Amino acid sequence: MKRAFPILAILTAGLLSYGLYEALVAAPTDQLQGNVYRIIYYHVPSAWTAFLMFLINFVASVTYLIRRNVKADAIAVVTAEVGVVYCTIVLVTGPLWARPVWGIWWTWDMRLTSTLVLWLIYVSYLFLRKFSSGSQTPVLAAALAIFGALDVPLVYFSIWFFRTQHPQPVIGGGGSIDPRMLHVMLLNWAAFLCFAGLVCWSRYRLEILQREVEETQALEALLDRRPQ
Amino acid sequence: MNFLYTAYAAAWIIHLVYVAHLVRRYVRLRKEIEELGK
Lengths: 228, 38
Description:
Number of helices of chain B: 1
Number of strands of chain A: 0
Structural class of chain A: mainly alpha
Radius of gyration of chain B: 17 Å
Order of helices and strands of chain B: H
Oligomer: heterodimer
Largest sheet of chain B: none
């Protein structure tokens, strides 16, 4: 993987650039919304990527609680961080689309509010990981992650079960989308997944290395304190 | 169009800020490893 990383990074950069070109130039313009609809090419794939990251975080957290597997705990930290990055993109691009289309930046409807709650839960998770150093921290964080994951289906299905201002799903929700638009959306999702995969891999290595360094520092501190 | 470009710019900035944050953490960790090696 170490040798393949630069090649994969170049391919990902290429895919991201191609996705950007397709989204801004090649995709057809929406008759009702005009060009501003193109925000969905980043907004929707970011949401899907965040959901996937939180799903992996959930599986890793459950695995950690059952087996106390350190690698699973590291995967949980990494996916929570990358998930928060993509959830942030969702929360930033959403209002930028809503302002010209709805006439307001934000409304406290079910989809928007549950997404904000999801973001807050995982930000709390990251704060817990950063500022708590007790041996029980991974257990507490895993429990919090499980509660956070419960919000993901709530976010996803909120537009099905509640009356919201958010548009209905165009994929798997009875709506329809132009195949050319769907192609661009899936292309950008593939690009985001490649980027997220590479970032997760780098961040995972960093996390493992960080833990090794902390263990060594703790051991050195212990040896220094030992009476000569 | 301003909203469109702002959204895309924001998405790219968030990506880049996160990558920069990872690089900074990696550099800091490398320094810690070097200090441990001394």
